[in-house]
Amino acid sequence: MKRATRAVVAVLATTATLSFVVQPVQAGGKDQTLRSAAPRDLRIGTAVAGGGHHVDQPYPDPFPNDKPYRQVLAKEFNSASPENQMKWEFIHPERNKYNFGPADAIVRFARDNGQAVRGHTLLWHSQNPAWLNEGTFTEAELRKILKDHITKVVGRYKGKIHQWDVANEIFNENGEYRQENIFIRELGPGIVADAFRWAHQADPKAQLFLNDYGVEWPGVKVDAYETLAKQLLAARVPLHGFASQAHLSMRYGAPDQLAGVLQRFDNLGLKTAITELDVRMDLPEGGVPTAEQLATQATYYKTVLDACLAVDDCNSFTIWGFTDKYSWVPVFFPSEGAATVMWEDFTKKPAYYALRDTLAAARGHGHGHGHGHH
Ligand code: 9MR
């Protein structure tokens, strides 16, 4: 976030002009938004709701149907991450059939609203289609399936994706390669490097990331990523970044060592990012958080943002949904919730203001002269 480079001055000038056009509300005053308050070199993103857990909920598909939701999405954010719409089971439901419509719609919306897109994800153990999980393939076939998928999906959005989560959650809590990942299990861990190479061939400008949860504190999982990152870089594999998802629970402390973790990857020359931040809490009887809980939640959000702001090349900060209306949290953790920065009616919680004020202060203190975005 801090370094200035000549090469990006032109890019920044373009970005500045663009954001003036699409964003009449400038930094300062009560009309400030997250994106208008943010330093120019920091993308502020959200997951775009659809697919996954939403499919079983009693509401229409959020992104295409909820107009007020789309308005807040456009106004507050300058980065968008398809929550499920680019995952294998969604975008590649049958072996010879791709379903690009919903992802295309998000990419178009992002372009129309001056937003970057984070692609999610290409190599993961979860949310893979039955034809893949249950098929019987030779090693050569499986390898070709992965290569074709990456080539096709990344290639379709060439030039339109800022960052791709190429490899998602590839290590378990002990820092071992996850054997649930069909590609790693059947083809060996070397497939990770190939996934990065194929993604780079398909879109040479996209920044390619490793992405995981449980890396907010130092430990064996972070060590495993650091070792892998060094190996990949030594082998000249096109790896560009390391991301912390940051799915947090107030049952555990705030991640006060996160800046140090990100710095270890920054030291390797990698970009870093926060990709899926939310902060869940145990809901009291009646389901309404106390003022104290909301204040604590705000400090967790701020801790994570401060960590990103403290590290030079942390250029992308994404929350995993902005409204409790569509959060994955209560569906997966029944006694917990209220994890996002806005209530169901899009009114703002203390956590929203903590983010906005912290962004505005960072911008005021001369951030915004760091690396640009292509
Ligand atoms: O938010 C996503 C939800 O809609 C899906 O049902 C769920 C299924 O695994 O995945 C959620 O997103 C996950 C993300 O893709 C990877 N990191 C953890 C996220 C929360 O589970």
UniProtKB/TrEMBL annotation:
Q: Which GO terms describe its molecular function?
A: endo-1,4-beta-xylanase activity
EC class: hydrolase
Could you confirm whether the keyword Transport appears in this record?
A: no
- Matches recorded under SMART domains: Glyco_10
Q: Which residues form the signal peptide?
A: 1-27
Q: Which PROSITE patterns match?
A: GH10_2
Catalytic activities: Endohydrolysis of (1->4)-beta-D-xylosidic linkages in xylans
Keyword Signal annotated: yes
The organism's superkingdom is given as: Bacteria
- E.C. numbers: 3.2.1.8
User: Which InterPro entries does this entry report, sorted A to Z?
Assistant: GH, GH10, GH10_dom
- Domain named GH10 is located at 64-358
Question: What processes does the entry annotate via GO biological process terms?
Answer: xylan catabolic process
Alphabetically sorted, this entry's keywords are: Carbohydrate metabolism, Glycosidase, Hydrolase, Polysaccharide degradation, Signal, Xylan degradation
Q: Which family does it belong to?
A: Belongs to the glycosyl hydrolase 10 (cellulase F) family.
Protein name, UniProt field? Beta-xylanase
Species of the source = Paractinoplanes brasiliensis
